Amino acid sequence: MEGCFGRKAREATAADMDADRISSLPDEVKHHILSLIPNIKEVVKISSLSKSWLRTWRSFQITDFDQHLILPDESSDRFIRFVDDYLMRSHEMPRFRLSARATPEMAPHVDRWLGISLDYHVKELSVNIFKVRQIPGKFLYSIPARVLSAGFMKSLTLDGAVKIDGISTVNLPSLLSLHLSHSHIDNQMFRRLLGGCPFIEDLSVFCCSPLSEIKVLNLNHLKRMKMTSMRPDLKVVGIEAPGLERFCMTYYFETVHLTIHVSPSVRCLEFTGLYKTDEWFCQFLSELPLLESLTLNGCRLLERIWISNPLLKKILIMNCDDLLDITIDTPKLSSFSYEAETTLPSIWTKNHGLGCAVGFRFYFWREPTTLWFQELQNFLTEWSTAFRCPELTVHLYQRDEGLKDEVNKNVALSAPGILHLKLLVLGPPQSSYPLILDGLFSTCHPATFIVRARYPLLEFICEALANREENGDGSLGDVECWKHELKDVKIESFEGNQHGLPLDQGTIHGLLPVISTWNTVCFRMQWGD
């Protein structure tokens, strides 16, 4: 018994010594430790551990004040006292990020805090005024005019129930980055705001109203612009910026009457939800001779498109479900990705034998059919010929789990000649397992086969691959059975751990007991001529 208590006493003493070692660290080291804690509320709790940590807390620089995180369930009074207490003992403020409730009672406090941050010549300012469901009304916080005349500010973000109006003078000569999200601003104030930011490099406009014209004129330093609108009010988008390199536009409204013009200097173009015809799109692309990267997502009017840009290196097409034909004249293309439900468009290329990494992703809400796999075989043959892809990697998933962009990442990292095919099959019944496997391998012969699946499907695949020689009589239609052509298969990795083991009964017996609900297995395959 004494030995037990003695051991506990020694352990407690060792823990106290470790705590003392941390407490005795220099303040700059402890400041770094506190900066790694994502929730400021937890940082406040640490200040109560000792007098040393309390002193560290009092000298720790807080830059983010989020009412959601700091005191989410408390009244606004405590949050106000918290911010006031910190700002009274601050000596500098390079960055000030504020997120507070949209209430008339909070407005004068926000005015005061912004004034203090401007007194400190804040370089990065972010204001988010969020609405509370329990509080009725449509209160908008009017941004003070002084904010738009802070000549020292480099970055400004205005988000939520923020009203930008009635300010006659804008003078932001040092501003490099401007982000407006869900803010209230009209056309005249928007033009005045941009006119006061002559050196801006980054601009984003997200769902602002009643803005109906996004016109950017004479911003010679603008390099990147991103805009999103979910309202039919938007009529004109015109970007005259000779240095513009990246333009991203999302527009979720079915109208072909929207006028869009961007500078010919654009190198990276992204369209999401754009409702434009084939003719408009092809004409628009022809006016971008320096284009190097193109992304199309959910452009539902496109059916037959011609992509002819001499410097284009990367193409990503997603969810353009009505697309039937793609003609490509891009001699420098190095990466092509296509994602859709089950649509298999035709490919035509003017550059035979492109050395290009290629990726496809298809997802099934219903079971794939034998006919679809037969169409897929012709589709892959056509693309492999066009892009000179002798090696194929197949990804088979039952659930995305945040892996939606994995094919695109693999394509970006792949060497030319690797074609990535990702099939997302959501919850197929066990009766369809043979169709999926036979359809897939009768269609294509991948060198690498990556499976992310539940236990029953993963077990079926492992046993089917290991026992292929014993059960090699099946076939899919008139296609020769894949089981005779697969000469060797190894488990290259399991859950990211390298193995390189041959797939036989011994490996399966060692593998299946450790398979959990979801696992990732990578197979390396060798096929006969």
Automatic annotation (TrEMBL):
Top-rank taxon, per record: Eukaryota
Species in which this protein is naturally found: Punica granatum (Pomegranate)
Matching InterPro entries: At1g61320/At1g61330-like, F-box-like_dom_sf, F-box_dom, LRR_At1g61320_AtMIF1, LRR_dom_sf
Domain F-box, chain residue ranges per copy: 22-62
Boundaries of every At1g61320/AtMIF1 LRR domain copy: 106-267
Entry coiled-coil feature ranges: none
Name of this protein: Uncharacterized protein LOC116214198 isoform X2
